[in-house]
Amino acid sequence: MDPIPVIADFSTRGLPPDERARLWEEHNASSLIGLGCRTLTGDVLEAAERTVQLPQLRLARVTGTPHVVDRTQAHIRANPTDAIVAYFALKGDAFFYHESGCEMVRPGQAIIGDGDKPFMRGFSHGLQEVVLEIPRSTFDDTHWHNTFRSPLTVDFTTNPHARALLRLIGTTLQDGTDSSAVVEATSIDLFLMSLGGPPASPSAAHTAAASVFIAEHLHEPDLTVPKIAAAVGISERQLSRLFAADGVGVVRFILDQRLDRAHSAVLSNPTAALSNIAANCGFTSQSYFSKVFKARYGLSPSALRSSRQHA
């Protein structure tokens, strides 16, 4: 039986103001990574975190007001992680000071490093980020030391595998999962692919990256197999084989995704023009949209909307 992930939520809201930083430190030491925390201006810390513990991986979503954290040798001795840690910045610029220098991290970037090397991070305008911890045992010793000798920065706005990884982590943090083993295997493969390394199963990583690219470009009428393959970095034949292995062709998958999105929009936006919904889902022909919609759901878009309004 697939292990059930452990989900935990924590917030400083409602805690005694002068105790918040200490309690935030204690929570992170047990749930994520041991750190020191302080505000530079004496402002009260507002911070919240959701963690999901899978059998191997640990995921987190963190928000907070301006503050500074550090991971010293004392923190490492008290709470070793034996893992690499990836921080995906969603909002707020940050600095990442480490033994080899200092990196500026902006929204759209992830910084990745050895969790058992000292560092300091600062968030002058607060933060919103997603965190991934991957155990050291995932990598062989040579790969570990060569790749993570110093922190790496990845742009997940342009890296399709990093973007798919962030989407998978975000979905798991929001909804949990009934397939911890699948989430972990796919996450590790996507992580390795985002760094240019060889994954255990490139097929799963490429399929996930292609699916995310399709979801983000469904509104484009010219979303084609060549465009998707080029974005993911594989051949058109390889892309077609990946989707065929799951029992559906790429073109059919795109159509199904467009229809799913259109169906949701028809029901959730009762005053929106159906022509606008069709265009926003990548359909250039209103008649074709109505035809394939009816074939899928048994009612035309207008008939479906009317039936719900009079139900």
From TrEMBL:
Transcription regulation recorded as keyword: yes
Domain HTH araC/xylS-type, first and last residues per copy: 208-307
Keywords tagged on the record: DNA-binding, Transcription, Transcription regulation
Coiled-coil residues: none
Keyword Mitochondrion tagged: no
The protein's name in its UniProt record: Helix-turn-helix domain-containing protein
Taxonomic placement: Bacteria, Bacillati, Actinomycetota, Actinomycetes, Mycobacteriales
